[in-house]
Amino acid sequence: MLNWVGRLTQVPSDSWTGRAIRLPLRLIPSSLPVPIFLGLMRGYVWTVGSGNHSCWLGVYERGKQQLFAGTIPLGAIVFDVGAHAGFYSLLFARLVGPAGRVVAFEPSPRNITFLRNHIALNGLRNVDVVEAAVADSSGTAGFAERSSSYTGALQQDGSVRVQIVRIDDIVATGRFPEPNFIKIDVEGAEDLVLAGARSTIMRAHPTIFLATHGSDVDARCVELLASMNYQVNTIPGDTPEWRELVARPVPAGKATVV
To answer: Among residues 20, 36, 60, which one ends one of the domains?
Structure first.
């Protein structure tokens, strides 16, 4: 069933077949909370219109879900930077269990509403929300809300003003423990997140999951990670628009990119 549903969701939405497959989905009220249908997230409650339909079907980015499940243990501390409506925050909450903790960073007012609702709907006590974008400084910045809720990004002339924070500053307050894992997906500001977390990364040596949006930011991220003695590997399934990476600490002088 899981593979069958996954194959259907991969049919291009702009094709005749893709439109026909998705037609019944348009009849489902976007505000309806439903149990996630399949996979590692099965049983969690998800709001239909908060993300792609593949989220509540349970097949969203299946490869990444499996990677996280095989890597993140019970009791871990996970920072979810660019949490969107909370799909991965919910998965991390399940993986780390009651003894672990998830800190979800999200600046978009629209996404924050869904994120908090999903935490409440699922009765999660191990997820904290920071209503801010993550970068290499603290203060406020412009944020551009775009046609897709997945693609909002920091932008100087963005129509929304949002808080920005550095991970190093957040950790220094003692409000949250140092992370064992950091997931970063912030539509082009990934290098800023890493730069603002340098002290934390050098001290705590977290495993970092990173989606880089564009070749320039990818190169900057790889350079930053190499300077912090991290080995960078590509996660299969990247697209022309971005690259999925996992970075792990290695002994000094042995950082490579695979």
So the answer is: 60
Run of H or E including 56: helix 53-57
Sequence-distant (6+) residues with CB within 8 A of 54 are: 9, 60
Whole-angstrom Cα distance, residue 179 to residue 6? 32
Q: Which domain-ending residue is among 17, 43, 60?
A: 60
- Torsion on CA atoms 184, 186, 187, 188, rounded to nearest 10: -80
Domain that holds residue 90: 62-249
In a structure prediction context, what are the per-residue pLDDT tens digits for the chain, which is 258 residues long? 545 444 444 544 444 443 444 455 565 667 788 999 888 999 999 999 888 888 988 888 888 999 999 999 999 999 999 999 999 999 999 999 999 999 999 999 999 999 999 999 999 999 999 999 999 999 999 888 876 777 667 778 778 899 999 999 999 999 999 999 999 999 889 999 999 999 999 999 999 999 998 889 999 999 999 999 999 999 876 455 678 999 999 976 666 666
Residues sharing a CB contact under 8 Å with residue 21, sequence separation 6 or more, in sequence order: 8, 11
**247 contacts 210 by C-beta, under 8 angstroms:** yes
Q: Residues 6 or more apart from 136 whose CB is under 8 A from it?
A: 166, 192, 193, 195, 196
Would you tell me the crossing angle of helices 87-96 and 62-71 to the nearest 10 degrees?
30
Rounded to the nearest angstrom, the gap between the alpha carbon of residue 97 and the centroid of all alpha carbons in its chain is 18
User: CA angle, 153 as apex, 131 and 59 as ends, to 5°?
Assistant: 80
